[in-house]
Amino acid sequence: MIWPGLATQTPSPSNIKFIEECKGRLHFGCGKQIVDTLIKEWYVSDSCCFQLVSIGESCHIALVNSALSGPLAKLNKFEALNKSAQIWNQCVEFSQYISPAASPSIEE
Fold first, then answer.
1. How far apart are CA 92 and CA 36, in angstroms?
2. Of 13, 50, 51, 57, which is most buried with the most CB atoms under 10 A?
3. Which keywords does this chain's UniProt record carry (predicted)?
4. 0.85 exceeded by the pTM?
């Protein structure tokens, strides 16, 4: 018997491809920081924030949902999704104030 609300939907092949493309654009260390932050009190580094914002919110959401239906299935989904939104919002806010532009050269 399948209980409503507890079944996980099998991702379509196009969703799987999208998730794999998103994973490929996010450095492993950055993904680990995000997972650590979802699981416990942690932080996402500045460079990881820039990387997260650069892959886009749809990738972030897809990766988090994929993790919550797989390796992080035991987490409270409501709390994890709220933390995920906080991570995204903080990274977007941070990236608006600090540009990842190259540092000025010595000749300037």
1. 19
2. 51
3. Signal
4. no
Phi-psi region of 89 (alpha: psi -120 to 50; beta: other; left: phi over 0): alpha
Half-sphere exposure of 97 (CA within 13 A, CB side): 6
CA-to-CA separations, 60 to 1, 40, 63, 101, 105, in angstroms, rounded: 32, 18, 5, 23, 33
What three-state secondary structure class fits 37? helix
Contact 48, 29 (CB under 8 A): yes
Site of tokens 């939104």? 85
Q: Which helix (H) or strand (E) holds 56?
A: none
- Which is it for the CA torsion 80, 84, 90, 91, positive or negative? positive
Confidence band (pLDDT; 50, 70, 90) for 14?
Answer: confident
